[in-house]
Amino acid sequence: MSLTKSITRLLRHSAVYGLGHILNRSVGFFLLPLYTHLFTQEAYGIAGLATTYLTVLTLLYCYGLDAGFMRFYILAEEGEERRRIFSSAFTTLLGSSLVISFLLYAAAPVLAPLLFSQAAIPVGVDLVHMIRLIVGILFCDTVAFIPLLLLRAEEKSSLFILLKISNGMVNLVLNVLFIALWHQGVAGIFYANLISSALLLVMVLPIILRNGWRIPHSNLVRQLLSFGLPFLPTGFAIALLDSGDRILLERLDSVAAVGVYNAGAKVGMIMALLVAAFRFAWQPYFLSTSKDQDAQTIFARIFTYILLTCVALFLVVSFFIDELVRLRIAGYSLLGESFWAGSQVVPLIMLAYLFYAMYLVFEAALYLKGKSGLIALVTLAGLAVNILANIALIPQWGPTGAAWARALAYAAMALGLLFFSQKHYYIPYEWGRLVRLALVSSGFYLLALTSPFQTYPWARLLLLSAWPFGLLVSGFFLPGEREKLRGFLSRIFVH
Q1: Among 68, 140, 240, 479, which is least packed, fewest CB within 10 Å?
Q2: Helix or strand or coil: residue 195?
Q3: Helix, strand, or coil (residue 253)
């Protein structure tokens, strides 16, 4: 397959995943005005902490079986072998999630004072009940997980996204009902999540019935786990990197600081949406493309393009973040006024996810070579950097310190994976072009922070418009890309 056709295939699936994921995750942005106008900083901080525990426990429920399923299913022959892999993975997760859910539900009264500090008690949220709602969500999500992974493995991106969008829309409507109309407070978030997760499980039942859920093959389950279990510490590390800083913020600062940080981090998730769209398509893509003779060249070009896209989004949002969070529609701003300070963390959160995009590309080489232990080692080292940086920076800078800690951790992880991946599966990355991209974009970003540009939004808009010309002058674009860029710019400025 040619370089152009191969990249086009990745772009096609990324576009479908991207559009669907953006529509699904946009639910969070639509709900930000609701949350930040109706909840106090403390109440929204508790919601952020609860979501953190939901994210981390998701990894416990799956314990790496998802990674093993994805690899073995894609590389298996179609037919009976794939059905056997599906039924073994699905039935194993179904049984284990029943056991884990029962234990966590019973232990909720003991877990509540361990997971939340004394400062959370006066806020008035029933923490035990909220933990039990989270257990129900985890069970439904886990049972639906393997059927959804099957759709990704078979590159049925349209059906996958249709299911996820339906889930997101139901969640949006239910949030409005439970919070704005029925006044259920923070618990309303998790009532809505539980019902929408249960409906998603119902929607994937045809996939489960079609592929069967027979007694698992013990040898096959051992193979799936032997590959997937090393990814469990990696998954825990990523989950804690993405949300564990809220736990440290509560202990080292306050519940209110968690609320402010949570609001800003949600806005910074704009970059996470882009990276997630790429991630959904990337894993099945690089597994199948690795068989091509020019796979390394294709991966190098993809790395350049994904970084270019991430940098463009970073500049667009960072240049206008204050205007974005204060923009009023029907009397409501994206963030309530008491949460506006959260805008300071947005560029740093976006930068962290840009480094995560780099991490995902570098990870592919070690994944292909079966070096999952090295991925786990690097990711755990990144978590250590994150924890130490949080402890050092939060007491001085509060939420901004937590955002810096996340960006530093992801940068360390990207560098670590680059070192190991190039030793085991060399890829000729286009470093000259990437250095030009970094230098030009950093210069434009720092210029936008100066007084004249901070004063006038129109000046920042002109500066942003000049960024592609800066890349063009620097020699970033290849000859064929320069011709396409000139044609694109001429259509904009001539017509």
Answers
A1: 479
A2: helix
A3: coil
Q: What is the mean pLDDT of residues 241-256?
A: 90
pLDDT > 90 in the chain, percent: 61
Residue 252 in domain? yes
pTM of the model: 0.83
3-state secondary structure of 329: strand
Listed residue (457, 466, 366) closest to 417, CA to CA:
366
Residue 396 within any structural domain of the chain: yes
The tokens for 327 are 């923009």
DSSP 87-140: HHHHHHHHHHHHHHHHHHHHHHHHHHHHHS-GGGGGGT--HHHHHHHHHHHHHH
pLDDT interval class at 131 (50, 70, 90):
very high
Specify the number of domains making up the chain: 1
Tokens representing 47? 């919601």
Quick check: is 468 in a domain? Answer: no
pLDDT digits (tens, 9 = 90+) for 347-373: 999 999 999 999 999 999 998 887 878
The three-state secondary structure class of 42 is helix
Q: What sign has the CA pseudo-torsion 458, 462, 467, 470?
A: negative
Return all residues near 227 (Cβ < 8 A) that are at least 6 apart.
64, 67, 68, 71, 72, 370, 372
Residue 15: predicted pLDDT = 61
Nearest to 403 by CA among 417, 415, 384, 389: 389
Which amino acid is it at 151? L
pLDDT score recorded for residue 252: 93
Helix (DSSP H) and strand (DSSP E) numbers for the chain: 21, 2
Q: What is the mean pLDDT of residues 190-213?
A: 92
CB atoms within 10 A of CB 494: 6
Question: Could you give the CA distance from residue 108 to residue 130 in angstroms, rounded to a whole number?
Answer: 9
Residue count of the chain: 495
Q: What is the largest distance, in Å, between two alpha-carbon atoms of the chain?
A: 68
Residue 153 has pLDDT above 90, yes or no: no
Indicate if the alpha-carbon torsion angle 397, 400, 403, 408 is positive or negative: negative
What's the rounded Cα separation, in Å, for the pair 304 and 283?
17
**What is the residue range of 218's domain?**
3-429
Amino acid 86 reads F
Q: Is 158 part of any domain?
A: yes
Q: How far is it, in rounded angstroms, from Cα 319 to Cα 165?
A: 30
492/289 Cα distance (integer angstroms): 35
8/10 Cα distance (integer angstroms): 5
Q: How far is CA 262 from the centre of its chain?
A: 15
Place of tokens 């709602």: 133
On whether the CB atoms of residues 108 and 135 are closer than 8 A, the answer is: yes
Residue type, 209: L
8 Å CB contact between 137 and 54: yes
- pLDDT at position 103 is 97
Helices (H), 176-217: 187-203, 205-211
pLDDT more than 70, % of the chain? 92
